[in-house]
Amino acid sequence: MPEKKVKFLGLFEDSILKQGESVCDSNCDCYDCNTDNDHAAEPDPD
Amino acid sequence: MFRTLKSPLNVQVELTWDCPNSCRHCYNSFRHDDEPILTMTTEQVECVARELVKENIFRVVLTGGEPLTVPELTVKAVEILRSNNIGVTINSTLMDLTPELASTLRGLGVRTIMTSLISSNPVTHDYVTQNPGSWQKTVDGIKLAIKHGFRVNVNMVLTKWNLHELEETGDFVGGLGAAVFGATRACAPTPIATEFSKYLISLEELRSSLEILYRLKERWGYGVDVFEHYSWCAMKDVAKYSHLARRKCTAGITSVTIGADGDLRPCGHNPNHYGNVFTDGLVGAWAKMSDWREGVHIQKSCTKCKFVRQCTGGCPVEAENSPRGRDHHTTGPNDVMSLPQMETLSSEAPKGRYSFIPEVVFRLEEFGGILGSSKGDIAFVDEVTLGISSDLRKKPNFNLRSVMSLGVSRKDASFFINRLVSKNILREEKSHAREKG
Question: What is the pLDDT of residue A34?
Fold first, then answer.
């Protein structure tokens, strides 16, 4: 069986999160945790 | 430039354009022009809510106008959305909150409400809202909401009218017991942008407001926020304000606003309409907003900035309304003196057993899919990783070896688990003893 590669993507068409770099915060352009809705409170934490 | 999602992740729904206040800074264009003040019918609210459920929207903000002027519509929307596990927050003046309504909304699973308090000074507040007595009603509403267990986020919209009262307002809000205090710059409302510009705070005032906000955080221990995206060059010390830097302009990319007329707009500020949810459906109208995914509206002077991918630049509506064609708080990359603090993902092999959180949603997309929930984060994955996730979801729980057994290397399997745990999409099973790696 060929090895399966895990890929977490960003919202930019060319962005792929690199392993071990960060948990994708605002210093990362992969954007997938940068989805907080403007003009809104954060979602319920629990 | 940006991936096109089949539908947004977050949606703001303006149930009504009616509001007891007439805030001088209100960003809703319909509050400043001759458009009729519309309110959705019950059938329209049901239609919108069903669309949001059908298209796997993760989070919804019920807003207006003032959504609590139409409590039956707000409750109807919450009932449909919460019963389908969609996260709901409400933006409200809280002037019309009653104990009965508070109990109903809490019972349906609404936890967070955002409200606006213009100042701790009633005179300033009522001057800006143009509604005598509104300060007292909002303060009473905040107290009532906190008493009923809501997490209340209080936002102060900053203008020349109230900036000098920021610190004392933060102290006042701390005394009320709010969970979060926000101090967010006003943007010029589109229909009156030119005449309003003299009331906008300056760049120096914006930076000073951030310093005050973080002083208040130290003093009161509450969360602080700005409820709009600030460009990195405006913030300057981005490392210090990492929490604020998480917000990006997501208009038309991950989020959208549905007006009381059913029209889709990229965000609440933006008066431009792209299709109608009642006639085109959410997906049909969303598809018409492709210019936002193409980056067409990114402020021209920001497009060459080395930080634009992370920052997304100044507010496009501000830029459009400005005679200089740019958000007046943007300067350029030389002002970015530090970068956001990074949280490093663990590189250790996970040793526990894991399962997907029960409310996780797998949403198919052209590029693969989205894993997410109403209360956790969101992860975009390619088709192969979505397949791995789907296989693992069928199991009651799994460990590192289970992932590897699907043909994934140890390194990738660790990455998969650690990343999804960090995003609260996977959880470690507490009942299982940790295993040897």
Answer: 47
Band the pLDDT of B361: cuts 50, 70, 90. very high
Q: Name the minimum distance, in Å, from the CA of B133 to any CA of chain A.
A: 25
Write the single-letter amino acid at B424: N
Q: Which residue among A3, A10, A33 sits closest to B377, beta carbon to beta carbon? A: A33
**Which residue among A26, A33, A39 sits closest to B268, beta carbon to beta carbon?**
A39
pLDDT category at A14 given cuts 50, 70, 90 is confident
Are B245 and A26 a contacting pair at CB < 8 A?
Answer: yes
> Alpha-carbon distance B435 to B437, whole Å?
6
Q: Which CATH architecture best describes the domain B10-335?
A: Alpha-Beta Barrel (3.20)
E strand spans, B20-111: 59-63, 87-91
Q: Output the pLDDT for position B29.
A: 81
Across the interface, do A43 and B374 touch by the CB < 8 Å criterion? yes
Q: CA dist B260 to B1, B11, B192, Å?
A: 30, 13, 21
In the predicted model, what is the mean pLDDT of residues B280-285?
A: 97
Looking at the DSSP assignment, which residues form a beta bridge with residue B12?
B61, B257
Q: What is the chain B residue with the closest CA to A38?
A: B228
Are A6 and B422 in contact (CB < 8 Å)? no
CATH class of B354-428: alpha beta
Interface of B with A in 279-318 (CB under 8 A): 309-310
For chain B, give every domain's residue range: 10-335, 354-428
Q: CA-based angle B5:B420:B384, to the nearest 5? A: 60
Chain-chain contact of B345 with A21 (C-beta, under 8 angstroms) = yes
Can you tell me the mean pLDDT for B291-307?
94
In the predicted structure, residue B293 carries a pLDDT above the cut 70: yes
> From A18, which residue of chain B is nearest by alpha-carbon distance?
B415
